[in-house]
Amino acid sequence: MAEVSSLAALQGLIDVVAKLRSPDGGCPWDLAQTPQSLIPYVIEEAYEVVDAIRSGDENAIAEELGDLLLQVVLQAQIASDYGQFTLTKVAQGIAEKLIRRHPHVFGDVQVETAEEVHQNWEQIKAEEKGETADAPQPLSRKLSRYARTLPPLIAGMKISQKAAAAGFEWKNVDGVWDKFNEELAEFKHALTHEEKARQQEELGDLLFVIINLGRWYDLDPSEALQGTNERFIQRLIKMEAAADRPLADYTLNELEHLWQQAKAQLANNT
Predict the structure, then answer these.
(1) pLDDT higher than threshold 60 for residue 1
(2) Which of 47, 84, 175, 188 would bridge 170 by S-S if both were Cys, CB 3.0 to 4.6 A apart?
(3) What is the pTM of this model?
């Protein structure tokens, strides 16, 4: 197959999506989609890209990036169908933003470190939103955006970081551990004396303190939980390989033995 340019390949994708959305011979499923109906696919494809990157499989990364790119093009096509905006506006907008927020590359600003780049980025971003040193955006507005747009664990870490930077911080990590013990006690109390809604609130409070502990020790809660999920599945695979009948037929003690055996095998392989 002849090599094609990036622009030609992208135009090919745009043409395919336009055909799928065409009232004249298009796909009924694609024609039925709305920006809202595609939200689950945007989220799913983004997570699959992350999984492929973690795997290091180049072919999988390219494929999953393609699936995610499809969601971008499809959203833009639907918006164009509604007379709202086009993919051209999307691409031009992000290009202009990158140029505006990298004055050290496209302008005459001098920087020495990545931290200086980050500080400039945040300052320019604030100015774009009409913020000034005298009239900054309310902290609550910034944090509410994280709560709306990010997965809970990631949002919790972002909220914790921004709140700490604004002064909502313990003097030392001992204060965080004290808060953890306090929230743990309140959660246990809620489990035996409170209704479901209150138990849910206390569980959330406990998780938020754990996120703060992760921040104090420079640990990423999302990465930590991802690792735990993967280790659990790896151990389960070993257990199923060693079992001579369905795991549901084993006693709890037998399952614990298989679990420890699987754990030891995986530890020896590392």
Answers:
(1) no
(2) 175
(3) 0.72
